[in-house]
Write a structure and sequence with these properties.
Length: 365
């Protein structure tokens, strides 16, 4: 009798344990499929290298993955962060009122991440290298857009009327780099040296505000500078500048951007980060599957997938898979060390997590 009672007790306990295990399992599955309670805040700059991520955002790709994100940006000469609307028309209205909305540098994004204002961000190659050389707690999880060798998205522009027949004609000229991460200032210097000149042969003004760049090129107080396609087209359309040389003095593919997150955020929210990368990869797959005619159809900045308005140039493109290429980052790291923008190299692999892209390629087939 005592044995029977013991067996009945063990059987009952086992059933209760199994019921509890199933309940917990169901609860965990339900939690995993729910959006996180608060949006993931990602710092974003409005540029060709980040626009595919933006198109994933405004076309609901993150919502479909049941993850809530908010792209955050700022405007020129102000520190406030602004939420980017999930409708392109709404963002276009904001830009109509403030043409410099979206001008947030990679250095500013990393700083806001450190202060806890952002969970992640879209940053350029030089901002990433600057951050890791200082040991800042960031992790890169995917490559964003990059220039291509065949049709780069950057060029060195000279003011209209300035005739250069040989490199020596550039001596004594004034060049400017725009306010951005370190790479623009560095590539102005690399351009000068690639023309066979010394840096002392020219005058270089760094970190010039976007509006001032336009005015100074127009009034002739600046003779040229390194610019991305959007600005190149503006200079040409307004008849104040022309393309002197498309980017070829460094590997164009090294002009790239990265999706990064705070190290602790990645550690504590791997499932959330995975959903974000999955959504991004799905959008890349979608765009890669479009015909050339459909890629060329959108003409609006931000919606464009291809832009051939300037001969031999195009907006940055995204790879599938969007794997982070260390050899390209190392090229920029070497140049930054050469020009004194960093004092030491970092162990780059410690700041990159390839697992998210690898898993996304499996989960989004």
């Amino acid at each position: 009798m005592r044995t029977l009672k013991k067996n009945l007790f063990l059987t009952t306990a086992s059933l209760l344990g199994l019921t509890l295990l199933l309940a917990l399992s169901a609860r965990h599955e339900s939690y995993a499929s729910e959006p996180i309670a608060r949006p993931v805040k990602i710092g974003w700059f409005d540029g060709g290298r980040t626009h595919l991520l933006y198109r994933a955002y405004i076309n609901g790709y993150f919502a479909k993955e049941k993850v809530s994100i908010k792209l955050m940006t700022k405007t020129l000469r102000k520190d406030d962060l602004y939420e980017v609307p999930e409708k392109h028309a709404a963002f276009a209205d904001m830009v109509d009122k403030d043409k410099f909305l979206g001008r947030m540098t990679g250095l500013e994004i990393v700083d806001a991440m450190e202060k806890g204002k952002l969970n992640g961000g879209t940053i350029g190659e030089a901002s990433f290298i600057d951050a890791i050389s200082k040991g800042k707690p960031i992790v890169a999880v995917a490559a964003l857009g990059h220039d291509t060798k065949e049709k780069p998205g950057h060029a060195f522009v000279l003011r209209k009327g300035l005739v250069i027949k040989k490199p020596e004609d550039l001596k004594g000229k004034t060049f400017a780099s725009r306010r951005s991460g370190p790479v623009d200032a560095m590539l102005v210097r690399e351009f000068v040296q690639s023309e066979g000149l010394k840096l002392s042969d020219v005058k270089i003004i760094d970190n010039m505000m976007d509006d001032e760049l336009f005015e100074r090129l127009e009034d002739g107080t600046v003779d040229g500078g390194y610019h991305h396609l959007h600005w190149v087209k503006k200079f040409i359309d307004n008849n104040i500048g022309y393309v002197y040389r498309r980017l070829d003095w460094v590997a164009p593919e090294a002009s790239l951007a990265l999706l990064v997150f705070n190290k602790d955020f990645v550690r504590d929210n791997r499932d959330t980060v995975q959903k974000i990368v999955n959504a991004y990869v799905k959008r890349i797959r979608h765009e890669h599957g479009l015909s050339e005619a459909k890629k060329r159809k959108p003409k609006t900045f931000g919606l464009q997938m291809v832009n051939n308005d300037v001969e031999g140039m195009n907006i940055p493109q995204c790879d599938l898979p969007p794997v982070i290429r260390v050899e390209l980052l190392s090229t920029i790291e070497d140049l930054m060390l050469k020009h004194g923008y960093i004092s030491r190299k970092a162990d780059m692999e410690k700041f990159i997590d390839y697992g998210f892209v690898e898993r996304a390629m499996e989960e989004t087939k």
